[in-house]
Amino acid sequence: MATANILTVYLVCLSYLLIAADSQRCKPQYSYSEEARGWLKLHMSPTPWNKALQTCLYEAYQLNKHTGSCYKVHDKKKVVWHEAYEVCAAEGAHLVIINNQEEALVIKNMIPAAYSGSTNKWDAFHIGLYRNSEELDWITLHGDRIDDVFNNWDPGQPDGGTPSHATIIRDGTLDDDNYTSLHRFVCERSPTVLQFEPLSGQYTEIEQTLNC
User: Fold this and answer.
1) Is the dihedral of CA 192, 195, 200, 204 positive or negative?
2) Is-contact 83 74, C-beta < 8 A?
3) Which terminal residue of the chain has fewer beta carbons within 10 Å of its beta carbon, N or C?
4) Any idea where the C-type lectin domain is (predicted)?
5) CA distance 155 to 173
6) How far is CA 134 from each of CA 81, 95, 129, rounded to the nearest angstrom?
7) Where are the alpha helices (DSSP H) in the chain?
């Protein structure tokens, strides 16, 4: 019986580590959610702002008081869009949804000054904005249309064709790209959320089922 319990914990830890791109420790207090397709923790106690900040920092997130969200830039490894989606979900977060110019500036300022000793305007980061495969409209992971959120595209973008996902580039504007392109990414989470609410958007194009 004891052996079975140890094996179960080991498999849970392994599943978590395979999902996360950055070095993350398996946390027994997290539970896997089929709806969220990720590992989540329910904080039952009312949380003051300073403790919420500590919670964000524990996961290496940065709290921004102006937007009320916590952010984390994953820049150690470039991944395809669905991998970025899964990593954010594993941290109880989602790919960042940029609502306005102020939030775009926050994300822009979080991007490191240079990679490999050089600065490239086209350094891109996956975000939670994609093109609906049926209506070909740009919508966020929460189902908001592009007209209702930040929509400052880089000049000449989106340039049509096959790109189906948006990125934010170094100068703080948007670019379109394929979901198979390798990029760094930014996750966003709430510092005070008590439960996970399923995404309202009908995202079915490249959904992944995690086998745990």
Assistant:
1) positive
2) no
3) N
4) 66-188
5) 9
6) 19, 22, 15
7) 2-19, 49-58, 81-90, 101-110
Calculate ∠ Cα 50-199-73, nearest 5°: 50
What does the alpha-carbon distance between residue 71 and residue 186 come to, in Å, rounded to a whole number?
7
Q: Please give the helix or strand (H or E) that residue 116 lies within, else none.
A: none
128 to 73, 94, 110, 166, 210: CA distances (angstroms): 13, 7, 17, 8, 19
Domains and CATH numbers, the chain: 31-189 (3.10.100.10)
Note down pLDDT in tens along the chain; length 212 residues: 444 443 333 333 333 333 333 333 334 455 555 565 455 566 555 666 666 666 666 568 888 989 999 999 998 889 999 999 999 988 889 999 999 999 999 999 998 877 666 678 888 999 999 998 777 789 999 999 999 999 999 999 998 767 789 999 999 999 999 989 999 999 999 886 433 344 444 443 333 322 22
CA 162, distance to chain mean position in Å, is 22
**Strands 138-140 vs 124-131: parallel, antiparallel or unpaired:** antiparallel
> Taking the mean position of all CA atoms in its chain, how far away is CA 87?
7
